Amino acid sequence: MHQKIWGTDIPSYLPWVELPTYRFPGISEVKREDVVVFNVPPKSLNEGKDYPTDIKNNYVKRCVGIAGDHLEIKERQVIVNGLAIENPVNMKFSYRVTAKDEINQRNLTHLGLDKDDYSFLWRTAENKALYRMLLTNSQVGRLKSVPYVISVSNDDRTNQGPDETIFPRSRGNVWNGDNYGPIIIPKKGMTIPVNDSTLAFYGETICLYDLNKNVEIHNGKLSIEGREVRTYTFKQNYYFMMGDNRHDSLDSRYWGFVPEDHIVGKALFIWLSLDKEADLFHKIRWNRIFSLIR
Description:
Elements: E1 35-39, E2 58-65, E3 70-74, E4 77-80, E5 83-84, E6 93-99, H1 105-110, E7 118-123, E8 129-135, H2 137-145, E9 149-154, E10 180-184, E11 191-193, H3 196-208, E12 215-218, E13 221-224, E14 227-229, E15 231-233, E16 238-242, H4 252-255, E17 258-259, E18 263-266
Antiparallel strand pairs: 1-2, 1-18, 2-16, 3-4, 3-10, 4-5, 6-8, 6-9, 7-8, 11-15, 12-13, 13-14, 16-17
């Protein structure tokens, strides 16, 4: 009963009882490329409710940047501290696929595509079928080899111009999901000057997640408990998370940094996988049960 009592809208916790949260000692620290379970920070991703940290929705994403890292994305490649990081084997991107005709469900399933991995767009002037598909490199190769597919090309719409939903949301932001940054991920003990530029990047983090009380930002000034501060030192570490399905992932590119006190643990294996489109007797994807997460 994570947030509600099963089958009801009754909260499973009492908001007027507030006890401290204790964590078991970790056997390791969060590292780049780890797949991490965490309480997703933004209120907007928690049914619009301001849940306590340990009651927030759990997300599973890959850590691509740790505290203190300089991170940017250039033409879909994540670069940390000046070096390109290793890409996950099953990383997906969006592609435009042109087929001779509409592809039947059996062939799509044979290619390993779920309903969420593709959408039919329209027929071209030549009466060909055009799809948007989210594909791994191996799936791209398989599609190019089948006789009913005419072409597979990058979906260039993903990197054309600024994305107004990108983090941080500022008027001068020209970034998108494929070309992002550079940014510095906050680290415990890192001190920044307080000005319009730094508050655009870090103001929300300071106000909502860095263990402060009575924080206000007004006219480019930061006040904590009624006192204006001209420099700010972060109180905990933060992380930058991204999904392997890069063009279908609501992650740090869109809502910002993950605070250390929101980390739940490392994702190790899949204990249950369901096909929401299948009938009752084929609902469970048995081939995915207990498979390791890499």
